[in-house]
């Protein structure tokens, strides 16, 4: 059987999470359970791994992959944006570490049959959680030209957003754009050949990325999750985030920087009035990237970006009432 997913930057994740025996660590993006296995072995025999994924396939797969840690692993089908509720339901106030490895697993991209890739002509679904109400095909079939253009521009950073949106609205009554390859072929016909030849990526890549981000509300969920994850760490606890494109990385970078700042008062004021204090210490001043050898062995790792922080503060101050 093909591998479900090869974990990206495994040595760096282990280093920055710094898991130790007996700790409680959340893997918010379980996927194939590759990172989760490494974390479980670090915190064994008495630690607890809370594994979350919004894709039921991932939960089923990880259950097998983590069978040997069975009693010290809790697997939860949920969105990591709901971390507060998940921990409340488990009766856990604080955790020692959180890992978010956002993006797609190799299984989702290549085997799920949900149209994440245009290498096969699959139904254009793109939901990581198949219980969610809206699939990519619904957006392509019903959104107006302006909405599609905004989505392609904002989430895909697509230069030809308007042209492509116009073509989709014009053609959707004639071509079956509810299938991945049909949509990719339409885009390929519109983008001038010379321009496509100069680009390192397929002409449809940015539109597919934009649709996926919209369907799964990926940026909103990341924005929601980061402060909660930090809030729920014990002092000294660590949050490590792997992201795969610049929009996600920008959110991580700004949130981490914002939370690492102390007083935000005008420096000309005689005294601080905001009482701001840093919540975290940056462990990665610059974004960390995979080594060339890793990219060679696992090309899906090539755009990985890793950032990590450590929670600051006193235990007594941090405990909830
Ligand atoms: C890159 S894979 C993770 C791979 C994993 N670290 C491993 O070592 O096998 C990303 C996983 O995160 C899940 N995911 C993405 N966004 C999520 C979210 N907001 N909540 C829960 N799971 C999410 C996806 O369904 C996918 O299974």
Write structural notes for this entry.
The chain is α/β, with parallel strands linked by helices and 321 residues long. The chain is 43% helix and 13% strand. The chain has a seven-stranded mixed beta sheet, sandwiched between helices. Helix 7 (145-156) packs across helix 11, helix 8 (161-171) crosses helix 9 (180-190) and helix 12 runs parallel beside helix 13 (246-260). The N and C termini lie far apart (49 Å). Residues 5, 7, 28-29, 31-35, 52-55, 58, 79-81, 101-105, 128, 221 line the site of S-adenosylmethionine.
For the largest beta-sheet, the strand count, sense and barrel status come to: 7 strands, mixed
Helix count?
Answer: 15
**Helicity, in percent?**
40-55%
Mean pLDDT: 93
Reading side by side through the largest sheet, how are the strands ordered? 3-2-1-4-5-7-6
Shape: globular
- Number of separate strands: 7
How far do the termini sit from each other? 49 Å
H/E element string? HEHEHEHEHHHHHHHHEHEHEH
Computed structural class: alpha/beta
Bound molecules: S-adenosylmethionine
Unreliable sequence segments: 316-321
Based on CA atoms alone, the radius of gyration comes out at 21 Å
**Could you tell me the strand content as a percent range?**
5-15%
């Amino acid at each position: 059987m093909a591998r479900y997913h090869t974990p990206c930057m495994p040595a760096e994740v282990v280093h920055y999470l710094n898991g130790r025996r007996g700790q409680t660590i959340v893997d918010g993006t379980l996927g194939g359970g590759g990172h989760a296995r490494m974390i479980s072995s670090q915190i064994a025999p008495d630690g607890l791994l809370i594994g979350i994924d919004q894709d039921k396939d991932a939960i089923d797969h990880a259950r097998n992959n983590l069978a040997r840690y069975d009693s010290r692993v809790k697997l939860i089908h949920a969105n990591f944006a709901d971390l507060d509720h998940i921990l409340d339901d488990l009766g856990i106030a604080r955790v020692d570490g959180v890992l978010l490895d956002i993006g797609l697993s190799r299984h989702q991209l290549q085997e799920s049959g949900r149209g994440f890739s245009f290498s096969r002509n699959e139904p254009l679904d793109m939901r990581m959680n198949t219980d969610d109400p809206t699939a990519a095909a619904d957006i392509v079939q019903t959104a107006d030209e302006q909405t599609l253009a905004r989505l392609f521009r904002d989430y895909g950073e697509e230069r030809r957003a308007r042209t492509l949106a116009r073509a989709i609205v014009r053609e959707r009554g004639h071509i079956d754009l509810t299938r991945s390859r049909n949509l990719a072929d339409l885009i390929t016909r519109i983008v001038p050949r010379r321009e496509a030849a100069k680009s390192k990526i397929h002409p449809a890549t940015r539109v597919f990325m934009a649709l996926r981000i919209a369907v799964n509300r990926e940026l909103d969920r990341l924005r929601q999750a980061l402060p909660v994850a930090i809030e729920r760490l014990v002092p000294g606890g660590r949050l490590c985030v792997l992201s795969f494109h610049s929009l996600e990385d920008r959110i991580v970078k700004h949130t981490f920087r914002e939370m690492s700042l102390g007083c935000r008062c005008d420096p000309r004021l005689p005294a601080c009035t905001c009482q701001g204090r840093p919540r975290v210490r940056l462990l990665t001043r610059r974004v960390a990237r995979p080594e060339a050898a890793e990219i060679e062995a696992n090309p899906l790792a090539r755009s990985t970006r890793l950032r990590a922080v450590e929670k600051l503060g006193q235990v007594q101050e941090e405990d909830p009432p």
